[in-house]
Amino acid sequence: MSVKSAVSSNPLNLSLLAAAVTLLYGCAAPAAKEGDAAKAAAPGASAPTAANSFTPMAKGAVPPAGAASGAAPGAPRPPADPTAPKPFADVIKDAKVQQGLFPIWRKDEKVWIEIPKAQLNKPFLFSVNIANSVGERGLYASQMGTDHMAEFRKIGNQLQLMALNTKFRAVADQGSKRAIDQAFSPSLLGAGPVASAEHPERKSVLVDAAFLLSDIPGYSTRLEMAYRLPYGLDRSNSFIETARADERLSTLTARVHFATPRIPAPPLVPTPSPVPTPTPPQATPDPRSLFVSYVYNFAQLPETPMAVRKVDPRLGHFAESFTDLGGDLKANPRVHYVQRWRLEKKDPAAELSEPVTPITYWMDKNIPVRYRASVEAGILEWNKAFEKIGFKNAVVARQQADDADWDNMDAGHASIRWFVGADVGFAIGPSHTDPRTGEILDADIGMSDVFARGSRRFLVEDVGMSSEQRLAQMTAGWRDGQGAAVCSYAKEAAAEMDFALDVLEARGDIAPDGPEAEAFVQAVIKDTIMHEVGHTLGLKHNFKASTTITQKQLQDRAFTDAKGISGSVMDYNAYNLALKGEAQGNYNSTTLGPYDYWAIEYAYKPLEPAAEAAELGKIAARSTEPALAYGDDADAGGFGPYDGMDPLANRFDLGDDPLAYFKKRLKLSQELWERVQDRKPLATDDPLRQRRALMGGFNQLFRAAELVGKYVGGMHALRDLPGSTGRASYRPVEPVKQREALQFLATGLFSVDSFRFRPEFLSGLTVDYNEWDRGGPLDVPAAVARIQIVAMDRLLSPNTARRLLDLPGYVAPGERKGMISLSEVYATVQGTVWSELKSGTEIDRIRRNLQREHLKRLQAVLTRAPASLPPDALSLARLHAVELQGQLRAAVAKGGLSVESRAHLADSLGQLTEALRATMQRS
């Protein structure tokens, strides 16, 4: 049959016409009608046509033989391209679709993502959350992961998921933008072959979602950090678990299997290592195999970017930060936009208006029913701050139904997630933002069940590990994108709660498991939720806020009921425990503080664009008000190069005199120890109750040792803009305060008298014999040594030495008299630690441990001093070491002590003499 007769007999048979033209000429005929072409390629259509499988020829390609115009009729058809994608309708035949930003097709175990041509090279927000995990060592469920501004790119028959580089930009200069695009590379997150020919109507192609069965978030590194084992991603046993899509979001959850072929055998003869080797997974049935669920989110960016608001350093907001290279005249090319939700009034003229779109938090169905009211109260407390700037019901809390079949880990729901783990005890408040503007698009607060179970059920004798080290261990390298580790407030607050409850129970003020204890825990949950919601509203920590309340106000119940115990819920606030005989105010924060209102006002107050800069300047200029004192994580120190030099910026202190607070904490620990020793144990007690209370006191003193040392060589820091107030940016801590702190460490924490326990009490501290890994007798000398070591390391650190040497330069010559010197600090530490050399008294074992630790540090300085130690500090250390050598010689010659003390002194003299003779090796 001829082409003409075929068309005349069936004028609508466009498929046959296209096939005939292809057969004769090697190319497809043009489509006659759009509607007919759509019918031919619609999902579920009958057999594919040649038009469906046509792929346009690349520009400049050489046509195959016989395809040129005028080729002889009946020429042989060129062979089909085996690499050409199949027709769209063929690929998705019998598949079910979820329409959305990127439609998702599923047939049995096969899943495809439909990529419209209009969405190619168009940025969207790509994020990965962790829905399920191992349950230990920082590998927990319900954790928000990484996010990128990304786009799909089609390169030939390959689709690439590309993370765009937003670290370097040109805000205005397009010429610079082209240069930046050439200079800084994007990153390839994943890729897969195009799985179908282009849909003729929707102009879209399919990609097999199996490309997501890879380690896009880099979780294998997390596993290696936790276990030091070679876990690899097992793609053959990984699969797409669930999918969801709507017009602004497409979400797929991948269940990814990690495995290692074998667990190495332990050494035949265990040898101690300076770096302990972690055990294999303990929370999985078989340590060789584990599953992790990745929630992949493809979210549409706002069509109209939100107006940006620049960060002011006088108060603390998380920032979208980048380097603006669009021009050469900027002294500082760094730009910082406030991270905040888009909040607009329904009625801009009204003094108080509901927002167009409220900030809605979905409460996870896993939250225990008994705690839901406290969680909701913590969320809604922030409405007080928004009402001050004209918004009614700006923040909304909604409860996920217990029978809901959707996961609030997707990017469409800000949520409060409740999760569990074998060793977990923290909360975290991260968010994902539009990198163009800083607009917060999603937030998932993770709340562990540390309060539901009570961390007092865990005996954790890690008092030698700082809160920041514990945090680093817990988070295993996951960051919030701004260099600061995630928030550990819940875990630390739970430890504080345990100490407070132990003290109050020992006094008889609260009955264990009674209504007062329940109310106490509910208040702690509200406090913690307020803190974490604050993070998801864009607020950073404020570790100076607690110093804005006086010690007298803390004892005033009426004041603390109305104003709280701190200037901000964004501090790590300790529990307000009065000494015996003192008036007792509120135990913890129950409401927002002045700083919280101020920070919300700066970020969210509606302002006319023309007046915004001036108005924001007025708001930020209030930083000189005492109630608005501010200091962030770097100010508090405890990580990286930041050791924290301002003693007013601390985690877990309370009141306007932190040193007085730490002295009070020592008294509270000693009161707890005395009461625990007086209490007669009962057979029905938890066997670890007394042991846990004892360690709770040590944990309090460990934190005090960390922070009191900040006074010595400390400097107060202010965040005023240059020339704005006339106040000094840096001011040395008053000499009297430095000496007071030094003496507290010398006579309090370095004294063995602070740690006296009755033998009958220590001998009665049992273990849990139901557990295999139960430990043995409590090592009190080791617990004391850990407290003393952290204080000594602070006093003898290179940073402290450098600041003590530099402090005179910050004071006028006429005011330098009476300043504390580095030599005075070295002499005080050495004289306190080795005081028995002058008194001639017996040296207790705890004191011998302390002296050995001091000698270790002295030896290290004399033989391999760190490069960061100033030369003057090295000279002074040698001078005091020679003095100590003479004192040791005299003590050894004198005799009259126990054999243990004489052996200790002789050994110490030998080690110090060798160190003084050794050749210096500067590291």
UniProtKB/TrEMBL annotation:
EcxA zinc-binding domain sequence ranges: 516-838
Annotated stretches, region: Disordered: 62-87, 263-284
Keywords tagged on the record: Signal
Keyword Ubl conjugation (UniProt): no
GO molecular function: metallopeptidase activity
Pfam families with a match to the protein in the record: DUF4953, DUF5117, DUF5118
Domain DUF5117, residue spans: 143-346
Bias (Pro residues): 75-85
Stretches with biased composition (Low complexity): 62-74
Native source organism of the sequence: Roseateles toxinivorans
Boundaries of every DUF5118 domain copy: 85-131
The protein's name: Uncharacterized protein DUF5118
Signal peptide start and end residues: 1-31
Keyword DNA damage attached: no
